[in-house]
Design brief:
By secondary structure, the protein is of the alpha+beta class. The chain contains 6 helices and 7 strands, in the order βαβββααββαβαα. 38% of the residues lie in helices and 20% in strands. Strands 1, 2, 3, 4, 5, 6 and 7 form a 7-stranded antiparallel β-sheet that branches. The chain starts with 10 loop residues before the first strand and ends in a 12-residue tail after the last helix.
Length: 208
């Protein structure tokens, strides 16, 4: 889901720190430094980093420069390896069964908690080889002149990840423009007390 689709949900942010001309020149190199790295052949369950706005699989920006006019365009790439819970349960049961068989041969019957943990890690490690990570992309449009960013997601976890990665890359803090923050900006400090006194409206239907 992104800005090039027919419809898109997005979040807005304000850059709180000043953006120097020197930093603007460094943006392409910083994006490459913190670009996404593939984990298809690695045991990690997830990975994230920046990629090209025009091609999510391009982490060198060969397809297009991130700078377009007065704005910077790039994407947050997030790959997650998902192993169905039923598959994990099946192979855990088989591994535990095999472990019990070995214990009985040595006159033991009890599997220690730490050993069960080791067995689970071994099972997951083997299963990871059979499940490729699913790629995901979240577009970013950064208007440097307006100190504003549009991010193609409204999911809390994805937003937190984006803000953390943005700070790590550019050393710039972001403020999420939630409805409350937007109201603060529009009404001003003189109406802060009135804003805080507003009670939430419950739109749920109450049945007798």
């Amino acid at each position: 889901m992104g800005f090039q689709n027919s419809s898109c949900s997005f979040s807005r942010f304000r850059v709180l720190d000043p953006v120097s001309d020197e930093l603007v020149l460094q943006i392409p190199d910083l994006l490459r430094k913190y670009a996404f790295r593939e984990i298809d052949e690695l045991p990690e369950m997830s990975a994230w980093g920046w990629s090209c706005f025009d091609d999510m699989f391009d982490t060198e920006w060969s397809a297009a420069s991130p700078k377009k006019g007065d704005a910077v365009f790039f994407s947050l790439r997030l790959d997650i390896r998902r192993i169905p819970a039923g598959v994990i349960r099946k192979y855990m049961a088989l591994a535990i069964k095999e472990e019990i068989k070995k214990l009985k041969e040595s006159g033991k019957t009890y599997i220690a908690r730490e050993r069960k943990k080791e067995i689970r890690e071994q099972v997951l490690f083997k299963l990871k080889k059979h499940f490729l990570p699913v790629p995901g992309e979240f577009n970013v449009v950064w208007s440097i002149a307006n100190n504003e960013i549009w991010f193609a997601s409204t999911q809390t976890k994805i937003i937190d990840l984006f803000m953390e990665q943005f700070l790590k890359t550019f050393n710039l803090h972001l403020e999420h423009k939630t409805p409350y923050v937007l109201a603060q900006m529009i009404l001003g400090e003189e109406n802060q007390e009135k804003l805080d006194s507003i009670e939430e409206t419950n739109f749920a239907i109450t049945r007798p």
